[in-house]
Amino acid sequence: MSETTETPTNFGLSQDHRDLQAWVHQFAADVVRPAAAEWDEKEEFPWPVLEEAAKIGLYSVDFMATQAFDPTGLGIPVFLEELFWGDAGIGLAITGTSLAAAGLSGNGTEEQVMEWLPQMFGEPGDLKVAAFCSSEPDAGSDVGAMRTRAIYDEKTDEWVINGTKTWATNGGIANVHVVTAVVDPDLRTRGQASFIIPPGTKGLSQGQKFHKHGIRASHTAEVVLDNVRIPGRCLLGGKEKLDARLARAREGASTGGANASMATFERTRPAVGAQAVGIARAAYETALDYAKTREQFGKAIVENQAVAFALADMKTSIDAARLLVHRAAWMASQGLPFEAAEGSMSKLFAGETAVKVTTQAMQILGGNGFTREYPVERWSRDAKIYTIFEGTSEIQRLVIARSISGASIR
Ligand SMILES: Cc1cc2nc3c(=O)[nH]c(=O)nc-3n(C[C@H](O)[C@H](O)[C@H](O)COP(=O)(O)OP(=O)(O)OC[C@H]3O[C@@H](n4cnc5c(N)ncnc54)[C@H](O)[C@@H]3O)c2cc1C
Questions:
Q1: Which of 128, 196, 223, 247 could form a disulfide with 171 if both were Cys (CB 3.0 to 4.6 A apart)?
Q2: From 3, 222, 390, 394, active-site residue
Q3: CATH numeric code, 3-127
Q4: Residue 49 CB burial class (10 angstroms; 0-12, 13-18, ≥19)
Q5: CB of 388 closer than 6 angstroms to any ligand 1 atom
Q6: Which fold has domain 130-253?
Q7: CA-based nearest residue to 149, from 134, 139, 160
Q8: Residue 55: which of 101, 122, 117, 130 has the closest Cα?
Q9: CA–CA separation, 367 vs 301, rounded Å?
Q10: pLDDT tens, 347-392?
């Protein structure tokens, strides 16, 4: 077990959280880390590792639901930090489905959640994954530029969807895809809705698979939707609710839609921050061990203030990032308003910390840090995505700046 469990940063953790931390840590150390370099090199989805996770109950509807209903909100960040301490690419392969699951549970009815959630995960021996497809070639940070169109066919009670999604984690290999699309172009983001694309639906295909800088065990691809026809019941939340929301938007009344999705992002961003903390901690621990054993000029390199101070800064940033993550996760669990965009703050700071700390760790390992003989260069490649996906660092700053100032900053 790493030293962080011994420090006062864990003052909020119950015995249950500590047990969870120890359990996931063991899986991360025994199964994930040893497999990490191989799947990074192969750049393939690590199905056998997912099977191992499912075997111990770590990849399952039950496990995700238990953590999601943790009354303190800390179960998810504790779990994610440990798993991503093992490896971020494999970590995302194991947790990518929960992004789609969050899209389903955030927008769907109870019946829709009951129907589709089990199909997102599958069963040990026949595991499935799910994908959440929102980004498009011309609509990344600017979600309002989305072009994928969904048109209702009243005669058959079907939705017909056309468009191209990009950068979708698990896109094309998923059993269930959750897709966002425009139902009323005049209403911009308020005219968008989410749909379930059931397994085996005709017209959905994988476009190009992306070859990436990091998190290479996680599958990222385009998803092409060519006259995809889905039953009316696949509109998340149902038609009545959508029609009422669109009517309010057309009257110019607030639908609460923009605020609701902003609140959802604030609640989910700490989870992404926790992943970044896991990567940073892995790099810091390795750099600390290395600095204590590597000798130059007749002494351990840690005895040089330049090296020791770098380690001090790394540890301080990681603990600060974890505190921001835990605060935001706890606030979400208590239903507190994010008046200063505390969720975005946690993701921003943790993502930037992961990039900085992994770079510093490479420096401390010298030549070894630059080779694939050591995992630090992989962690450095993996860390970079945390300033890009789930809202870039600039977008997080925009959200925080707007929240604290009330000004319409562009
Ligand atoms: C590996 C990976 C996995 C992903 N997984 C998913 C997924 O599962 N589902 C999904 O829907 N999407 C996913 N994404 C997409 C991801 O969320 C987007 O890449 C991200 O939102 C940024 O969009 P973009 O790449 O189009 O960049 P752009 O929006 O084009 O941004 C380019 C640059 O401009 C800056 N910028 C843009 N607007 C502003 C502004 N107003 N002010 C200041 N700076 C600005 C950005 O910060 C960035 O630095 C994934 C991406 C990657 C790389």
A1: 223
A2: 390
A3: 1.10.540.10
A4: buried
A5: yes
A6: Butyryl-CoA Dehydrogenase, subunit A; domain 2 (2.40.110)
A7: 160
A8: 122
A9: 14
A10: 999 999 999 999 999 999 999 999 999 999 999 999 999 999 999 9
For a pocket test of ligand 1, which of 178, 389, 402 has the largest count of ligand atoms closer than 8 A to its C-beta? Answer: 389
Q: Would you state the pLDDT for residue 260?
A: 59
Query: Using CA atoms, how far apart are residues 94 and 280, in angstroms rounded to an integer?
Result: 19
Distance CA 9, CA 274 (A): 14
Contact 385 CB / ligand 1 (< 6 Å)? yes
Residue 86's nearest CA partner among 142, 137, 44, 23 is: 23
For residue 337, give every residue at least 6 positions away whose Cβ sits within 8 Å of its Cβ, in sequence order, or none: none
Distance CA(5)–CA(320), nearest Å, equals 15
390 part of the active site: yes
β-bridge pairing 122-123 and 126-127: antiparallel
Question: What was the pLDDT predicted at 254?
Answer: 62
Residue extents of the structural domains in the chain: 3-127, 130-253, 258-405
Architecture of the domain made up of 258-405: Up-down Bundle (1.20)
144 CB within 6 A, ligand 1? no
Q: What is the pLDDT of residue 259?
A: 58
Where the chain has pLDDT below 50, the residues are: 1-9
Tokens 């798993």 locate to: 83
Distance 140 CA to ligand 1 centre (A): 5
Which protein residue's CA is at the shortest distance from atom 26 of ligand 1? 140
Pairing of strands 299-300, 220-231: unpaired
* Pairwise CA distance, residues 212 & 220, whole Å: 8
Element (H, E) at 177: strand 176-182
Give the per-residue pLDDT at 255.
58
- Report whether residue 148 contacts ligand 1, using a CB cutoff of 6 Å: no
Query: What phi, psi does 373 have (nearest 5°)?
Result: -70, -25
Rounded distance between C-alpha atoms, residue 217 and residue 38, angstroms: 9
Q: What is the pLDDT of residue 410?
A: 84
Taking each helix axis from N to C end, the angle separating 393-405 and 342-369, rounded to the nearest 10 degrees, works out to 150
Ligand 1 midpoint to CA 212 (Å)? 14
Burial 290-323 (b: 16+ CB within 10 A, else e): bbeeeeeeeeebbeeeebeebbeebbebbbebbb
